[in-house]
Amino acid sequence: MLVPHQKTAQKVLQAGHAVPLDSESWQNLREKVGLERVPPNASRYPEAIEELRKIAKKTGFDRLVAEKEEK
Amino acid sequence: MAKKSFYHFLGCIIPHRYPSVEKAAKLVFKDLGIELLDMEGATCCPAPGVFGSFDRVTWATIAARNLTIAEAGGHPITTGCNGCFASLWDANHELKHDAELREKVNENLAEVNREFKGTIEVWHYVDALYKIAGLEKIREQVTRPLKGVRMALHPGCHWMRPKSVKQKDDSERPHIFRELCETSGAEYVPYKDELICCGAGGAVRTADVKLALEFTKQKFDSLIEAGGADMIVTPCPFCELQLDMGQVEIQKYFEKEYTFDILHVVELLALAFGHEPEEFGLATHLQYIQRKSEPAWQRIGIKVEES
């Protein structure tokens, strides 16, 4: 597993999206085109992210993509 | 006939990096009398290259969680992203045909009080526009035909592949995306590498952006060799990002400058339907922000008032 791919998977478990709405500038961009600042996806609904984390815990995916300690 | 409604699966790149595509989709579908419903609490599809490669059951479970949102509302899904379409369509298909996978996925979904039932279908915008609206109705909406605009296409990979499973179009000789784009009045320009990947997909961009850009550069050079074009149109925001922002990155990595305007198919149709580019923010594409530039308005068929 390459580190950039591992980070992408971790990001989905943290934010609900591989490419998250992670700065105000992206919200400003949405507003500029006439949309609500935060879309009606996991960016607006933290409970959706919580569901992903529960699923990842159940399948063991959270451990698969966790930072590995140096031995 | 009852108004057709779809749950609108936004994915990640459209709402978070290219919101002009989200806005253009809303304008175009509304013009065609098709309702787009918010899909509240949808997450990443999840990214097929990364999740699909790491763990098939987790990939299918997260995709199925998204599908259950639409199942609960009783409407099909439409998405304007080839990657999201790949995850959602493929997972829906596999879960309907693989009882063992479905059992494992539903065991996982029970943790969050959900169940995949297999009651809805997943449509790409291209399918919905071509089959539900239809080319005739789309042509009726065109009030600004882009006559004289030379349009190259980048269909991308996942909408029509694998051909034998998806049965959308002939992936080696596709015509549906072309016919849809030609309703705009723009003139189709063929080039040798039209059907190769943009370079971003399959988690390649994430792993090695320079390698991904070599694919993009090859496409651009192939198009220039064929005589060039005034715009490149794609049905995917990840391809759009790679072709659009990729030009800025190619300049950095390879010191070669390209200045193609890249449009998502719904942005093309929004213009052809008479919407002004400001209505959906065409000039907010990342290459224009990075380069402090703007679209080549006249070249893409938009009249600019002389000041």
Give a brief outline of the structure:
Chain A is an all-alpha fold. In chain A, 56% of the residues lie in helices and 0% in strands.
Comma- or semicolon-separated keywords:
heterodimer; A: 71 residues; mainly alpha; 0% strand; B: alpha/beta; Glutathione S-transferase Yfyf (Class Pi), Chain A, domain 2; Rossmann fold; 2 domains; four-stranded parallel beta sheet; 16 helices; globular
Ranges of chain B where pLDDT stays below 50 over 5 or more residues in a row are: none
Q: Beta fraction of the residues of chain B?
A: 5-15%
Helix content of chain A: 55-70%
Q: How would a textbook summarize the main sheet of chain A?
A: none
Helical/strand content category of chain A: mainly alpha
Reported CATH architecture of the largest domain in chain B:
3-Layer(aba) Sandwich
Oligomer: heterodimer
| Number of separate strands of chain B | 8
Explain what this protein looks like in three dimensions.
The complex is a heterodimer of chains A (71) and B (307). Chain A has 4 helices and no strands. Chain A has helices at residues 3-15, 24-32, 46-59, 61-64. In chain A, helix 1 (3-15) crosses helix 3 (46-59). The model of chain A has no long low-confidence stretch (mean pLDDT 94). Chain B has 16 helices and 8 strands. With 307 residues, chain B is an alpha/beta fold. Chain B has helices at residues 13-16, 19-31, 48-54, 56-73, 82-97, 99-109, 125-133, 135-141, 163-166, 176-182, 204-207, 209-225, 237-254, 265-272, 277-280, 286-291, and strands spanning 5-9, 35-38, 77-79, 122-124, 150-153, 187-188, 231-234, 262-264. Chain B folds into 2 domains: 5-125, Up-down Bundle (Glutathione S-transferase Yfyf (Class Pi), Chain A, domain 2), CATH 1.20.1050.140; 144-291, Rossmann fold, CATH 3.40.50. In chain B, helix 12 (209-225) packs across helix 13. In chain B, strand 7 (231-234), helix 13 (237-254) and strand 8 form a beta-alpha-beta unit. At the A-B interface, helix 1, helix 2 and helix 3 of A face helix 1, helix 2, helix 3, helix 4 and helix 6 of B.
